[in-house]
Every structure is written in structure tokens, then in C-alpha cells.
Amino acid sequence: MAAGALQGQVAFITGAGSGLGAAFARRLARDGAQVVVTDIDGEAAERVAADVGGESAVLDVTDAAAFDRAVDDAADRHGRLDIMVNNAGIGPPSDDASRARFATTVANQMRRMEGRYDDLAPVDGFVSVSDEQWDRMIRVHLYGTFHGIRAALRHMTPRRSGAIVSISSIMGLRPGAGIPDYSAAKAGIIALTKSAAAEVAQLGIRVNAVCPGFVDTPLLAPMDADQLAMVRMQIPAGRFARAEEIAELVRFLCGPESSYSHGDVYPASGGWV
Ligand SMILES: NC(=O)c1ccc[n+]([C@@H]2O[C@H](COP(=O)([O-])OP(=O)(O)OC[C@H]3O[C@@H](n4cnc5c(N)ncnc54)[C@H](O)[C@@H]3O)[C@@H](O)[C@H]2O)c1
What we know:
Layout lengths: L9 E4 L5 H12 L3 E6 L2 H11 L2 E4 L5 H15 L4 E4 L9 H18 L11 H4 L2 H29 L2 E6 L2 H4 L6 H21 L4 E8 L12 H9 L9 H12 L10 E4 L5
Parallel strand pairs: 1-2, 1-4, 2-3, 4-5, 5-6, 6-7
This protein binds nicotinamide-adenine-dinucleotide (NAD).
């Protein structure tokens, strides 16, 4: 790996077997970081780790004890932990109720465009999200990010250095109809970020969040062509982001260039927010 600004640094990334996390792994490795690629899908993590010359581990971020063990292992092996990227996430399930909510949201947008305000239909997000779905969404995103920040700080605090970046969403800033679980989980990540930064900024540890707009990754796979077109129409940039574009922002927040960023929240939304 070529020498770069992150040479000698150890980066731990969750959900890095696919999409954004894999792009973050590639970007940080390109600047010399030794990347620990983790994912609930061990084979996917292995493939990305092989690609970036890093190491892989199976990790379900909802498992607090497993998270601590994985971070301790990595920090013990390398003698340090410099970067934590809390990225693992899930989209709304592709079940019938979820599809119906999204279809209603899209249909309502059409009706608004046509000025048919009297015809707007109830989205019913709150009454149709199951307890299981609510619980899973909060566990993966909010508990997962809390576990990651806590595990990282146990190693970064004694060394008084480190960078933590958590992946929220534009839905955390401007919550959408029909996805109360995802919106609340992503907004919670912003609050966790600011709370952690208020605690450790004076130690020189930087904790920040990124709020991507719609990014072309497997997370969007449950959306059909009409739904994608309707979303795209609302993005001022007129297109979805590429994972590599978001990776540039994450790279900035992991490196010395962002030395005055503490508890800051960075949208990359194509103009959405
Ligand atoms: N794609 C978008 O449009 C978009 C927009 C804003 C925010 N995000 C966020 O970006 C992050 C990455 O999403 P992506 O678009 O790359 O999706 P993706 O589906 O391509 O990747 C998500 C990865 O997380 C892993 N994962 C899921 N649950 C896990 C768990 N419990 N523990 C560990 N790993 C787990 C999956 O196996 C997968 O490899 C998510 O937090 C997502 O909410 C995505």
C-alpha cells in the first residue's frame, strides 16, 4: 500500500462488506490506513478485506460484547485504534406493508404535483410499522453506533487521539413520511455524535457524522424503477450519489484536514437538504 496521510493508522469499519462501507475501506486504505473490515456477512467482509489488503471479522453491531471483543482484538493486535467508522445499517424491509407505505408516499407526491391535495392518502407509517421492525431498526443503527463509539473511546481516550465518523442520513435531518423507525434511528445518531464530541473534544478526539442523500448501493435494491425515478426527480443534482463521493467526505473527517470538526454533521445530499 502506498504511503499516505493515514499511514500507520488503524481503521475499524462496520458494515464494510458492501456499498458505502466497502467504499470507505478502499478510500482509507488508499491513504495508507490498515483497515479492519467488519460485517455481519463474514464472506462479504473477507472479499473487501482481500481487496484492500486489510483484515476481516464477522461482527453484528447489535451485539455489544462481540463489538467490544472485536475492537479490543484489533487494538491489541496493532497496538492502537485511530479511526472508527460506524456505518452498518439496514433499509426498510421489502415486505408488503413497507412497499405499500412507499407507494402511497410516491402517489401522494404525484397528487401534489397535480394539485390534487384533497386526494392525498394516509401513509400510515406509524400504525403499520411492526414492533419487530421498529426494534431491529433502532438496534442496528442506534445501539450499533452507541456500541461503536463506546468501544472506540475506550481505546482512544488513553491515547488522547482518534477520529470517529458515524453514518446518519438526510432522513435524520429531514425525516421522511412512512419511515419513522429509520428517521428516528438516524436522528439519534446525530445526537450521539454531538454528545460524544462534547465529552471528548478537549482530549483531541474528533466525533462527527455524515448524512448522505440517496446513494447507489444495494440498500436501494427494494425500490422499483418508478420509485427510484420519483426520488431522483426531487434531488436538485438530478442523480444519486456514488459511494466513492461519500467516501471522500468520510476520508476528510478521518484525517488531519478536519482538525476543527467536533460534533459536526455533514450532509452530502445533492441539494436535498
Ligand atoms: N444507500 C443510501 O442511499 C444511504 C443513504 C443514507 C445513509 N445510508 C446509510 O449508509 C450505511 C451503509 O448503507 P449502504 O447503502 O452501503 O447499504 P448496504 O446494504 O450496501 O450495506 C450495509 C452493510 O451493513 C451490513 N449490516 C447490516 N446489518 C448489520 C449488523 N447488524 N451488523 C453489522 N453489519 C450489518 C450489511 O451486511 C451490509 O454489508 C447505512 O447505515 C445506511 O443507513 C445509506
